[in-house]
Design brief:
Trefoil (Acidic Fibroblast Growth Factor, subunit A), 28% strand, signal, Rossmann fold, 18 helices, Glyco_hydro_3_C, TIM Barrel, 20% helix, globular
């Protein structure tokens, strides 16, 4: 029989190893990679990967948003925001939410493969260092271990439990990303301990466990180098897994490398550096791939890239596609269809997740509610559910008002002021048509046409809703104000304004454009000229607080629902300036409480608020993140006591932003930040949350009180519900190292268990604590170390509500004095500092320290200078030149042992060796490098005996 004839352009599919599900993934990838031409490989380096038709390889797109449910593609189940999911302290529940989300992604993918890809961009595992961060709701916790645990759980649900990936989860955003202000040009400066103990610790578990298979770098720089060029991608991140890890850029970030960041002179150079640093996929220019790929071709032509570099990136991309089963005859997920989207099981899961996320912050006994005849449901969030930027489209909404109305009579009031605006020429009026129309100035056309509901979302951001048609005022593309929007929405929110005081009234400034509202031909429009702004008189038509007080007085109980709008004053691209409730909301709470002391404050927000007055006066306070489609039912379940409030805080709630360091200061150790190091008295501590049950802790037993680095401490404690009703308790175990060479956390979460106990029921909880987890990063030797020291176990219901303690000892090692002769002292490995910034020592790799001004210093504690060091050579750089002084034991008054003159250099990367003889340098001393000049950079110090 004749053999079949095959074309060299189309190999016999029977011989295609890459299509063999039984072959190892590496072999399949190697086979497919070997079949591709260089041009075909280049086509796979963009978010929109080009098809290779001759091999039957279809197009592929990275990036489907799935942070707390499938987003941006139409109605799908909306679960609580990520910060809310973490507040459940239930990793298994979070895994199930990820699993349900993955099913819905698959269903959309089967319906529209090009529109819904299976590489999902979730979860976000940036530790929530600062609650002012605009994207706070996207993360899980300020604790890196808890962040890693919850991120792994969600990613595990997304990827599924089979060898074939259900979806390919992508961790965001690597690395040290916690500010929106200047996010593309600011540098997050990370000393080695903060890098190793805090930032990397949050990312590692999901990659190491195989739950996540991809990573997205962040917009910012880290120690002066763009995160997209970080050597940590290849040198650290990819060592955590034996599998290929795909690295995708954030949207439009690659162009910043030669644009906003100006790190490279042109894009071919920048893109070559990015690929060599480990970037595999460019998310740039949307579906227009040619510009990006053209720069990569140019880089190849210039010799900035080799084909081997392209192969490495393509291998990572193909590995994910092979593992997704793209080239298999069939996958286990082929039967998933549209029926899974928002199915009853997912609705019930959304309700359960919302219920377990609800956190009872305060309760003077008013909750659970008895049998109120009438409830006043008040506030701007009382009868609405809001979508955030990464939220799915709500298939339906169960608001607080709707759910409470199912149980008893309700009265409702938004509690927002109704105002009128007028100029010297007349009133601002709105069209009463449902589609709206341009806002005009003229004679008052009736109370409805000239009235607007004023929403205060904090931070000076206001939104106006026309009473005429119930639509929000927006600015159209032509600059004309029109009442045609359901509310603040979209990436570029065009429905919010600031009110600036003027001598005769106020002017409105459009937040999105920064332009002012003016009157042109009787129509409200916007202008660049502040002098042309229309001066408006604000006339109060009806006080929202006063109306709410009247409504509250008629009810048995008042439930006031306040919080943030997820797209205003705290969102992607916008940080908060403070922690206060919006002023109008604060006044509303006070007015309602004055009218009815039986007031329950419900806060729905993606971040903490400083609700100091409410904590002092209001009987009960509840918080949850924006809770998704079933929020109202979950809230009603908790308010009426059908269910226990299952949430616990994963962030510290501070009393004021004054207690926080600068937003750009990422050194949590030096600034005493997060619950780990914070020494103040928080409003609500990390881990806080109350139950309707009452719990007693007893019989704390440690498996051993003397352990080695390879052992595991098991902490056992008995918890008893001494209350009259069932309840949930999160038993939390913390440790504190009591003696150390370095500054240690005051408390650190090591484990927990969530238990539900009936009245009178007891349970013994056992929490394992691997002693290896107690290690810290030793800057003197560049590795983790478990130190010989006394420790203390603290057990309780929060980081500050500790009921039982027990000591134990770790038989670790003692950190010796620094050996200054065996290897150079890298400047980045100092112990403490003042007045310096961390920077890149070279574009590709290495960190250094640069003085921000004269008098700056770094110190190396317990430097062993032996019987005497004769000289010191420093690797230094300065474009202006300068002077360094080496001192012992004190930066100002310590003994001077050497002075270094730094010559001027052409660029900051031109390091030279500048030396000094040493006098009196002997023994174990604290060695200070004092910068007498601004802009001097030190990379390393080398000592001679």
């Amino acid at each position: 029989m004749n053999e079949p004839i095959t074309s060299p352009e189309r190999p016999d599919p029977r011989q295609d190893t890459f299509r063999d599900p039984g072959a190892p993934v590496a072999d399949r990838v190697r086979d497919l990679l070997g079949r591709l031409t260089l041009e075909e490989k280049i086509g796979l380096l963009h978010q929109y990967q080009a098809p290779v038709e001759r091999l039957g390889v279809t197009a592929f797109r990275t990036g489907t948003e799935a942070l707390h449910g499938l987003a941006w593609l139409g109605p799908a189940t909306v679960f609580p925001q990520a910060i809310g999911l973490a507040s459940t302290w239930n990793p298994e529940l979070v895994r199930r939410v990820g699993e349900a989300t993955a099913d819905e992604v698959i269903a959309f993918h089967h319906k529209d493969p090009a529109g819904a890809g299976r590489n999902v961009w979730a979860p976000v595992v940036n530790p929530l260092r600062d609650p002012r961060w605009g994207r706070n709701e996207e993360g899980y916790s300020e604790d890196p271990w808890l962040t890693g645990l919850m991120g792994t759980a969600y990613a595990r649900g997304l990827r599924g439990d089979l060898d074939v990936l259900k979806t390919a989860p992508t961790l965001k955003h690597f690395l040290a990303y916690n500010n929106e202000t200047d996010r593309c040009v600011s540098s997050s400066n990370l000393p080695p301990r903060v890098l190793r103990e805090y930032e990397l610790k949050a990312f590692r578990p999901a990659i190491e466990s195989g739950a996540a298979v991809a990573v997205m770098p962040s917009y910012n720089l880290v120690n002066g180098r763009p995160a997209h060029l970080s050597p940590l991608i290849n040198e650290e991140l990819r060592t955590w897994s034996d599998d290929d890890v795909l690295v995708v850029s954030d949207a439009y970030a690659p162009a910043n490398l030669a644009g906003l960041q100006g790190y490279h002179e042109d894009l071919p150079t920048a893109y070559a550096h990015a690929i060599r640093a480990g970037l595999d996929s460019f998310t740039q220019d949307d579906a227009d791939t040619e510009a990006t790929l053209g720069h990569i071709r140019t880089a190849l032509d210039r010799g900035l890239l080799a084909e081997e570099d392209i192969d490495a990136a393509v291998r990572h991309a193909l590995s994910i596609r092979v593992r997704l089963g793209e080239f298999d005859p069939a996958t286990p997920y082929d039967g998933i269809d549209e029926e899974v989207v928002n199915r009853p099981e997912h609705q019930r899961l959304a309700r359960e997740a919302a219920r377990q996320s609800i956190t009872l912050l305060k309760n003077d006994g008013i909750l659970p509610l008895g049998s109120p005849r009438r409830i006043a449901v008040i506030g701007p969030l009382a009868d609405v559910l809001l979508e955030d930027w990464y939220s799915g489209t709500l298939p339906y909404q169960v608001t607080a008002r709707a759910a409470l109305a199912e149980r008893c009579e309700t009265l409702h009031c938004e509690g927002v002021d109704r105002i009128a605006l007028h100029t010297e020429d007349g009133y601002v009026t709105a069209a009463d048509d449902v589609t709206g129309g341009p806002l005009r100035v003229g004679p008052q056309a009736g109370p409805e046409r000239s009235a607007f509901d004023l929403f205060d979302w904090g931070g000076g951001a206001y939104a106006f809703r026309a009473a005429a048609n119930g639509r929000h005022v927006s600015v159209g593309d032509d600059g004309v104000l029109i009442n045609d929007q359901p509310g603040p929405n979209g990436w570029e929110v065009r429905q919010t304004f600031r009110m600036e005081e003027r001598l005769r009234g106020v002017v409105l400034r459009h937040i999105s454009t920064g332009r002012y509202v003016a009157v042109d031909g009787g129509v409200l429009t916007i202008t660049d000229d502040p002098e042309a702004a229309a001066v408006l008189t604000v006339e109060l038509v009806e006080s929202g607080a006063a109306k709410a007080a009247r409504v509250a007085a008629e009810a048995d109980v008042a439930v006031v629902v306040v919080g943030d709008h997820p797209l205003v004053n705290g969102r992607e691209t916008e940080d908060r300036a403070d922690l206060a409730l919006p002023a109008a909301q604060e006044n509303l709470v006070k007015a309602v409480h004055e009218a009815n002391r039986a007031t329950v404050l419900v806060i729905s927000s993606g971040y903490p608020f400083a609700v100091n007055w409410a904590d002092e006066h209001v009987p009960a306070i509840i918080w949850s993140a924006h809770g998704g489609q079933e929020y109202g039912h979950a809230l009603a379940d908790v308010l009426f006591g059908d269910e226990d409030p299952g949430g616990r805080l994963t962030q510290t709630w501070y009393r004021s932003a004054c207690e926080l360091p600068d937003l750009f200061d990422y050194d949590i150790i030096a600034t005493d930040s997060t619950y780990l190091y914070y020494r103040g008295a928080p409003l609500y501590p990390f881990g806080h949350g109350l139950s309707y049950g009452r719990f007693h802790y007893s019989d704390l037993v440690l498996s051993s009180d003397d352990l080695g680095p390879d052992e595991t401490l098991v902490v056992r404690v008995t918890v008893t519900n001494t209350g009259w009703r069932a309840g949930e308790e999160v038993v939390q175990v913390y440790t504190h190292q009591q003696r150390s060479r370095v500054k240690q956390p005051l408390r650190q979460l090591r484990g927990f268990e969530k238990v539900r106990l009936a009245p009178g029921e007891s349970r013994t909880v056992a929490v394992p604590v691997p002693i290896a987890d107690l290690a810290f990063w030793d800057v003197t030797r560049g590795r983790f170390v478990v130190e010989e020291a006394a420790h203390k176990v603290q057990v309780g219901r929060s980081s500050r509500s500790v009921f039982l303690c027990a000591p134990f000892t770790v038989k670790g090692e003692r950190v010796p004095p620094r050996d200054v002769f065996t290897r150079p002292l890298d400047a980045i490995d100092h112990d403490e500092y003042d007045g310096v910034v961390l920077c890149d020592a070279a574009p590709e790799s290495g960190d250094a320290v640069r003085s921000a001004g004269p008098g700056a210093w770094i110190v190396f504690r317990r430097a062993d200078l032996g019987r005497g060091a004769s000289a010191c050579d420093l690797s230094v750089s300065s474009t202006e030149g300068g002077v360094l002084i080496l001192r012992l034991d004190d930066p100002l008054f310590g003994e001077t042992i050497g002075t270094v003159t730094v010559p001027p250099a052409a660029t900051r990367y031109d390091f030279v060796e500048a030396g000094t003889p040493l006098a009196g340098a002997a023994g174990v001393r604290d060695l200070y490098v004092v910068f007498e000049s601004e802009g001097v950079t030190v990379r390393a110090l080398r000592f001679c005996r």
